[in-house]
Amino acid sequence: MLPVVALVGRPNVGKSTLFNRLTRSRDALVADFPGLTRDRKYGQANCEGLQFIVVDTGGISGDEQGIDAEMAQQSLLAIEEADVVLFMLDARAGLTVADEAIARHLRIQNKPVHLVANKVDGIHGDSEVAEFYRLALGDVHQIAAAHGRGVSQLLESLVKPLAERFPDMLTTEADPAAEELDAEAQLERLQNQPIKLAIVGKPNVGKSTLTNRILGEERVVVFDQPGTTRDSIFIPMERDGREYVLIDTAGVRKRRKVSDMVEKFSIVKTLQAIEEANVVLLVVDAREGLSDQDLSLLGFVLNSGRSLVLAVNKWDGLDTDVKNDIKRELDRRLGFIDFARLHFISALHGTGVGNLFESVQEAYASATHRINTAMLTRIMEMAQADHQPPLIRGRRVKMKYAHAGGYNPPVIVIHGNQVQDLPDSYKRFLMNYFRKSLKVMGTPIRIEFREGA
Ligand code: GDP
Ligand code: GDP
């Protein structure tokens, strides 16, 4: 489990600037898909040795009536579900009435809050920042999100309150020899455990119907699990002799004792489920086409490195012409995720549901298929012979060898001289080359570069 950090504040204080800085991927290749980067509201932060889920709550203005109801609902829910709130203020503007309204709301939430004064590059002296202490929410962190100033100190302050509860948030720099052993141990574990399958999608796409459909055909062991609003239910099941744990984000098997809120769609719950899963089944609604929310979820899945199967639901009762139009549109907009299988299903009637599991198995098998050093190095050498790496600062980039650095997703670590400076175009070429040579389907792959032997 990763902790959830919510960015809260009135419009224009710099939330998305900080969000972008935190979520800018170390491995731009995985995250850099056209059409997914704009307008993201939640993402995975991976910086300064820390990993966490970050949610930009966007719509909070302090005047909850004034904003679109669902948006405000989601923002409030995200705050409720967050482990820490970063309450952002604009140091240049000073304290405003809206800030005070938000502060009042946060005080009753009883949630750890860090005050963050942004844009300190634009102020002279400390008086603007001093005002923020009046909110009585503790210390004020001073940052300039646009320039990165103060951000590492801010992150540092998150470690102490969170790391004990969320040890996974600390990422460690790998040592190559230990890494190879770790990858092997990880593979062993992955190959001997049930496949954790998360069924995710925005509200009303048919997740509950699909989950019931899948479970209806299986012998289900339902058991009580304590939990908070953001916990999914884990349901063990078997299919074709393979063990699974279904991660039910739709709350199908949740006991009725919990409040109404729990049954509602929760972004944070969905993100946690993706993090927990080995394979994600992303459900979209054929009749609605792809929405921003679908693309955001997709972006999150890609970023997390999970295996992916796409289900286009409600494929019943549509004319052939309409079906063709939908297919064409999906092809056009999803062309860039050529590794994921696309299924057209009707959860209501059960059509196509059985076949989903073939793709799930295939995706998991691809993500957990052993790749050895000799093979990876050979593929790397072939790629290098096919298309010579460029000169950088007058020296030819030289890739020396490759090994597996992990699985689910498969991570390929390439060692060599100046490899970290390879241009994105060459990295992309390598990615495609490895993908084709390894014949992986259903899982993204990652390439990491290390200087030296
Ligand atoms: P949001 O509405 O809270 O998401 O705010 P944005 O991230 O969109 O930022 C609003 C404006 O403030 C943009 O024009 C940013 O370029 C600017 N901004 C953000 N961070 C900083 C900063 O650290 N210093 C300065 N001077 N401007 C900033
Ligand atoms: P969830 O919010 O994603 O869990 O969505 P639900 O499973 O509750 O479904 C939302 C609505 O879509 C319900 O009225 C379902 O009956 C309907 N629905 C779900 N799957 C299908 C399908 O395959 N075809 C059609 N026509 N309707 C469906």
UniProtKB/TrEMBL annotation:
GTP 2 binds at residues 201-208, 248-252, 313-316. The keyword GTP-binding applies. GO terms for molecular function: GTP binding; ribosome binding. GO terms for biological process: ribosome biogenesis. GTP 1 binds at residues 9-16, 56-60, 118-121. It holds the Pfam family MMR_HSR1. Keywords: GTP-binding, Nucleotide-binding, Repeat, Ribosome biogenesis. InterPro entries: AAA+_ATPase, G_ENGA, GTP-bd, GTPase_Der, KH_dom-like, KH_dom-like_a/b, P-loop_NTPase, Small_GTP-bd. Gene3D superfamilies: 3.30.300.20, P-loop containing nucleotide triphosphate hydrolases. Residues 3-166, 195-368 form the EngA-type G domain. GTPase that plays an essential role in the late steps of ribosome biogenesis. Associates with the 50S ribosomal subunit. Belongs to the TRAFAC class TrmE-Era-EngA-EngB-Septin-like GTPase superfamily. EngA (Der) GTPase family. This is GTPase Der. It comes from Bowmanella dokdonensis.
